[in-house]
Amino acid sequence: MLKPLGDRVILQAQEDEEQTVGGIVLASNAQEKPQTAKVIAVGTGRTLDNGDTVVPAVKEGQTVLFDKYAGTEVEYDGATYLVVHEKDLVAIVD
After folding, report:
1. Cα(27)–Cα(45) distance, rounded to whole angstroms?
2. pTM as predicted
């Protein structure tokens, strides 16, 4: 499995099939990029100038809201993941 470094977080987007009121299913490339995702892996945290480490605020398994154009998409073992910095996460979804 992928292991993020520093303050990076690996997310797996939760893509839902979007259907319009008229019952038309939109193709995935016509939909907006999803902004919620499940946290797959979390790095060790950000290291400050004095050597202290700030522990990440998110944990594996949580659902988060992230900035629209954040991160880098990577493919690994047949699945697509998004690698983002913790600062690009907006909220934890309960």
Report:
1. 37
2. 0.78
